[in-house]
Amino acid sequence: MWKQKDFAFNRNEIAGAFGDIGTDFPILIAMILAAGLHAPSVFIVFGCMQILTGIIYKRPMPVQPLKAMATIVITGKIAGPIVLGGGLSIGILMLFFSATGILEKIAKLVPKSVIRGLQLGLGISLSMLAFKEYIPSESTKGYILAGISFLFIILLIDNRKIPASLVVILFGFFYSLFFHFDTYTKFSKFEINLPIIHVPNFEMILKGFILLTLPQIPLSIGNSILATKQISDDLFPNKKPITIKKIGFSYSIMNLISPFFSGIPCCHGAGGMVGHYTFGGRTGVSVLLYGLFYLLSGMFLGNGIEILIKAFPLPILGTLLFFESLSLILLIKDSFQNSKEFIIVIMTGLLASGLPYGFLIAMVVGTSIHYTSIGFKTFTSIGDKNRN
Question: Which of 136, 210, 243, 265 is buried deepest, with most CB atoms within 10 A?
Fold first, then answer.
């Protein structure tokens, strides 16, 4: 049943709608170009999944590209059919994990300190992406754009009448329109596009499982399932908690549907929910509006989508991404009171952000230490004025 409090249409929901664009948009474009995917299909399906989750969860539960898969696809230029096969294989696997209760057992085993550490690791990774790839992308001009965007957000972050991210997005749009107007003139025509039907064969599903799904599983369980559940509980303590099983089922259903319409593998994500929330999103409307942006872009812009991303300044997206990562990192503050938990959080975060398969290693190491009697007296005494 639809209730007004679950679907609030206001300026803050509009601003929150673009809280995760700095992460998603460039990844989608890079995957389309690297794998030779049909751009309209990718955007239409991605948008539909956003709309679906916004309606189902009635809070800013976003859909994101699978980051480990995306990294492999972009760097290795994995062919489109293998990408779609990988999406279907992880959908099947996550359905099995959800239906058999494996996800719930893992959730009970992994302590909160490890989840906080995984969130810290994701925050560090996203901030490094912003600093190394997005903000420097236009040299000195990029730093100036990022500085102006940073100032806008700092001044408006607590203002509910003038949403910070909306101002920054409009600033980027007008900047690109003024300085890259010739890019926009390359849109030759507008036409209605529909997703291309695709049926992955067994060979592509198997290759996708080996090349893409296996490296993705630890990050999906740690961030897409466990951390997203924790974030939802943190940000919406007065709402009915979302269950691990529900998140797992919606994750799997998205990937059981998307490949058949040439959509990329996708998931939920803790960072995405924080991004929407940071810039004003409190209901399913922010995700619904975000989905409409992709749906309409895919239907009417077609292959001109890549022109749009080239015109919009990446340093501005990088600034939005930085504040999303900052919000993720700040979640560790509830672990300050317990010295051992705090050390596990820091250790897990550094391992997750610094190692190949870091999320898997961090989850195993952090959980193992949690259940030992190790007290870390040497570390906890660091900074103690009374220490000899």
Answer: 265
Structure tokens at 64: 């994101």
pLDDT in tens, 176-196: 878 776 666 666 566 788 999
Q: Which residues contact residue 273 at a Cβ distance below 8 angstroms, ignoring those fewer than 6 apart?
A: 59, 60, 61, 62, 228, 231, 232, 235
Distances (CA, A) of 257 to 42, 48, 253: 12, 11, 6
Q: Which residues pair with 130 in a beta bridge?
A: none
Say how far apart CA 76 and CA 74 lie, in whole Å: 6
What's the CA gap between 43 and 185, in Å, rounded?
21
Q: How far is the C-alpha of 254 from the C-alpha of 263, rounded, in Å?
A: 10
From residue 108, alpha-carbon distances to 104, 115, 164, 234 in Å are 6, 12, 38, 17
What are the tens digits of pLDDT across the range 248-300? 999 999 999 999 999 999 999 877 888 888 878 889 899 999 999 999 989 98
